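User: Assemble these into one structure.

Assistant: Restating your components, then the assembled model:
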Amino acid sequence: MKRGIAGSLESNDALITVKESDKLEITIKSVVYDFFHKQIEKTIRDTLSELGIDKISVVCEDKGALDFTVRARLITAVKRMEASK
Amino acid sequence: MRRSLLFIPGNNPAMLRNSDVFESDAVIYDLEDAVSVTEKDAARELVSGFLNCAGALPMEVIVRINGLDTEYFSADLEAVVSDKIDSVMLPKASAAYLAELDFLLTEQEKKKGLKKRINVVPIVELASSVLQIDEIVKCPRVNGVLLGAEDLSGDIEVMRTKKGNEILYPRMKLAYACAAYKIDAIDTPFTDVNDGAGLEEDCRFVANLGFNAKAAIHPNQVPVINSIFVPAQKSIEWALRVQEAARQASLKGLGVFSLDGKMVDKPVILRAENIIKKARKYNLI
């Protein structure tokens, strides 16, 4: 199965792993889960929508990343997954 | 007119989000040497995303893209050119590369409908570039030139030293060329971030050669640089006295006059005016 990884587990960053899937699966692990998991999930869903992707597995390990970081790491991970095909 | 330009690694979200608090006159979001070859794509996406969501930043925004001779150049340029940046920094610059960059920037500006014209800050870091400085400073969009001593010393196969004798010739050449075209002469970073006294000495040395700015690789270097690339209080007081004396002399129809026993004529008055202009810019008077 093809996959792409981008980001890091450094503070203010997020490590995002994406895999091909026949459905949309989003898993979020965050140091600020209680406060921000809905916002992180929205950023992931919005970004996937912009990319025209509705079936994919996304695992986001968040270390306090702002929206622009989650979005950028997700886009990079998806591009890396596609490039690995 | 810049004093300090702070490099921010392009793949570091924490540094990007805090880049407006370090009080440098410019930030340089770096997609080149601060980013490993395996992370070029990630850094490009991150810097582009940061710029798109950032509000108006209180300092000049420069992006150091990868050189024209690399596979990353085109994607870098496409990703970062927007109204959110002021300048592009070009590594390993030559007059030919700068002409090509000007053409490509014009294309990008038209395609994206930019409201501004992007400036260019070339890095002189090859022996061949040193020999072309006279041409580089005349290239379109160039409003400052950075000396890149680390790559340059590698190119001429000499060891870098804190004293910097090995880069005296390019420093002097660059300072004169930039002065001739009234653009910023930007000195190479001081790489020992724990040697504040050494940084201060280096700044004073190059300021006396004619440089008006220096790049920084750590936020703790910015206050030192900012404090040195401005007129000293003594110079400001002298300039204000010259200005007042010139005003009095003008009322008497005198083009040349004496102040403190020394002749003051047009070049001295212009120097005083430049000091006052710079002091006002940085709120020193």
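Chain A is about 40% helix and 30% strand.
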